[in-house]
Amino acid sequence: MTSPNILDRADGIVAALLTPYRPDGTVAVDVLQQHTSQLVEAGIDGLYVCGSTGDGVALDEDSRVLCTRAVVDAVDGEVPVIAHVGTNSIELTLQLADRSVGAGADAISSIPPSIPLTEAEVRGYFLDLIRDAPAPLIAYNFPARAGVRLSQELLAELVEQPNLHGLKNTSGDVFEMSAFTRLRDGKFRVWNGHDEVLYAGLSVGACGAIGSTFNAFPTLYLDLLRHYRDGDHDAAMAVQRQVEDLVRVLATYGVMPALRAILTSRGLDMGPSRRPLLDLDDATRRRLLEDIDALDLTA
Fold first, then answer.
1. Which of 76, 125, 183, 239 has the lowest CB atom count within 10 Å?
2. CA–CA gap between residue 226 and residue 77 (Å, rounded)
3. Catalytic residue from among 48, 125, 140, 199
4. C-alpha radius of gyration, the chain, whole number
5. Does the active-site annotation cover 228?
6. Please, what is the Cα angle at 68 between 104 and 141, to 5 degrees?
7. Enclosing domain of residue 82
8. Domain count, the chain
9. Would residue 238 count as lying in a domain?
10. Is 140 one of the catalytic residues?
11. From 21, 168, 199, 221, the catalytic residue
12. Which CATH number characterizes residue 212's domain?
């Protein structure tokens, strides 16, 4: 059974891992483990495997379990590992949850199925998962990706289930996030899910963040969180402005291929993007790296 203490460690900066590939499309396990170890050494508070950033829904079940096992082995208990197990079928999701926990995941997470669902059907999906999952669940609210959102009313019902550990909220709606953090008498864990609004998320009660750009710039976000928790809001806002500038540049090129290119430029061969995602060409990659250097980030 997962130790509560290891999940408490995830109340901070959790990297939603990119998945590296070999030219033939198979997972580059050695690169994934090297990347994981570097993030742990940088001080990251947890790792989120095979989410939207890690191409989870584009990978087969064996590949997703392989990624989870590789990350678990690399962290060796130092930080919690959260496995995203969402699929369009509750049966397949529960099967993947069992296998992921068997591979060592400390918690699981799921986005709603990306098919048209009524709120009653979304409720049924999450209730089945919460009640039958072999580890604590972190629900994943990402309306732009899933096409459905977790409403405040539905989440208020779901938090009555003790195995619901928290929520990864990638909606950009800070007012809504504030309402979520007030559940369970203000003790419900909510992780900010849009990196560029981290300060705002913290200000309304987020316990931390789960994000993609942490792959390449972990200390930037760790510094922001440290300043915020120390009460040095001027310093936290200064880092927040850098985060906004960074995300603006990355979004210009496409966040995922840009992060893959940046990490590869630092010696981690992340390999090609998962089709149908496209990689940056050489000229575009050079411009990206020049634009990142011009930001003169402090971390």
1. 76
2. 23
3. 140
4. 18
5. no
6. 105
7. 4-228
8. 1
9. no
10. yes
11. 168
12. 3.20.20.70
